[in-house]
Amino acid sequence: MLEKLKEKFQQSHFHFVNGPATQCEALLRECLAGYGEQLGNTHPQTLQIGHLLTQVLNYQKRYHEAFQIKNLQIETLNADPQAPPEQMFFCIRQLIEIARDAEQFEPAMSICKQAVTRYQGKHIESHAFLVLLAGTIAQAMEEYDKAFAHYAEVRTVLERDQANDHILSGFTQFYLGTLERDRDQDKLALQHFERTAEILQGLGEGADQELFAHNQFQLALLRTEGREPQQVIGNLLACLETHAKVFGPRVPLTAKIHSSLGYHYNHGLADKESAQKHYQMARDIYTQWLGADSVEVAGLNSLLELLAPKG
Predict the structure, then answer these.
(1) Which of 285, 233, 242, 296 lies closest to 261, judged by CA?
(2) Three-state secondary-structure class, residue 198
(3) What is the pLDDT of residues 274-284, one digit of tens each?
(4) Are residues 184 and 235 in the same domain?
(5) Residue 302 forms part of a structural domain
(6) pTM, 2 dp
(7) For residue 107, cis peptide bond before it (omega within 30 degrees of 0)
(8) Same domain assignment for residues 206 and 235
(9) 103 assigned to some structural domain
(10) Among 4, 111, 137, 180, which one is most buried in terms of CB atoms within 10 A?
């Protein structure tokens, strides 16, 4: 039974990369039920499948379903005194991020505050990361002063403890960078992203690869002034390679980079053929995850119409 489930899990990964998303989801749901029955719902393998299924639903903007799965995992972990604490924290983190991305800001902040209380004085790193997450919720609500206060709180603790090169410092600098971007303070944002890159470089193999990928993309977007178009495109191509390795070559995160490449090939080099190629790739990825009627696909169709040969 487990061997068959393992094969189906591998198949789900193939469809995660190549589509269709519906087949990936169906296989993951089957694996989640099967592993839960065979190994238990709090077994690391079962939880990992739940995390991936949540990600698949998130990419499709099916936040309510993703929230339900994650909430059920948390209830199951709470009922098991032997459940690994790191799995509980990861589930809580995902639950907060799902609610935030769904723009359910009040529930997101409520869950975050409860989690902050839960970890206060017990696990310093988890507590600090939850304070950062509270900042991202405030930032998404455009309450920038509150967001800054959360980020500054963590930064102050890290400076006090002389932990400026800790991974938490990397996340803090990154979130400060995104905040300054939202405030249209690109020079300040660039300083924070560059500091994030320094911290991650110092951590070497211990660096968070997802944070590295996100930060690399932000740097590429900001490092355009005074640079040759070919250099800007080279930076974006490097981002595309990193994202493909970390997240997968055909997910919405890589579609964003393809879209940026389309823009810079068109406006920077007047290379319409390359621009079309990247816009089409972005459109195909969004179609796979969000459907042909999505806003993202409609926007890319408009851009491709403008680039289409006339006559």
Answers:
(1) 233
(2) helix
(3) 999 999 999 99
(4) no
(5) yes
(6) 0.93
(7) no
(8) no
(9) no
(10) 137
